Amino acid sequence: LAERPSLAGVRHILLVLSGKGGVGKSTISTELALALRSAGKRVGILDVDLCGPSIPRMLRVQDSAVHQCDSGWVPVFVGQDKAIALMSIGFLLERPDDAVVWRGPKKNALIKQFVTDVAWGDLDFLIVDTPPGTSDEHISAVEALRPHQLLGAILVTTPQ
């Protein structure tokens, strides 16, 4: 019996990015997920901002833990209706405020693992919250997501 790829049930993938930090990528990702959920969609958020994983705190699930199942990591489900699935390095740290000081290869390997080893199930949208700038993490995320249904990207900017 062949294993089903972790993103096989994901219909659309959206990247949220920017050229700099502090512009509201995580806020946009969170609000977009909440709006899609309100519209009756099944939504997941993949937080690949490894040095600043803020989405668990924004959705008030920072004390949750990720568990393993036969098909990989089980994301944390948010809210009473469990309508938003979330995966973040914030769940893998001993303390939510721990710093992640990793070189590129280790970060890239974790992003690839998040794409291949999370049991997302059936989702209408997977929102990928990226770190600030244009780093290796962006290239790793796009390369790992290339075989899947990448719908597009939302570029968050500020007027300055």
TrEMBL record:
Keywords: 4Fe-4S, ATP-binding, Iron, Iron-sulfur, Metal-binding, Nucleotide-binding. InterPro entries: Mrp-like_CS, Mrp/NBP35_ATP-bd, P-loop_NTPase, YlxH/NBP35. Gene3D superfamilies: P-loop containing nucleotide triphosphate hydrolases. This is NUBP2 factor. PANTHER family: CYTOSOLIC FE-S CLUSTER ASSEMBLY FACTOR NUBP2 (PTHR23264:SF19), NUCLEOTIDE-BINDING PROTEIN NBP35 YEAST -RELATED (PTHR23264). One of its GO terms (molecular function) is metal ion binding. One of its GO terms (biological process) is iron-sulfur cluster assembly. It comes from the Eukaryota. Transmembrane segments: none annotated. The keyword Ion transport does not apply. It comes from Cnemophilus loriae (Loria's bird-of-paradise). The gene is Nubp2. CDD domains: Mrp_NBP35 (cd02037). GO terms for cellular component: cytosol.
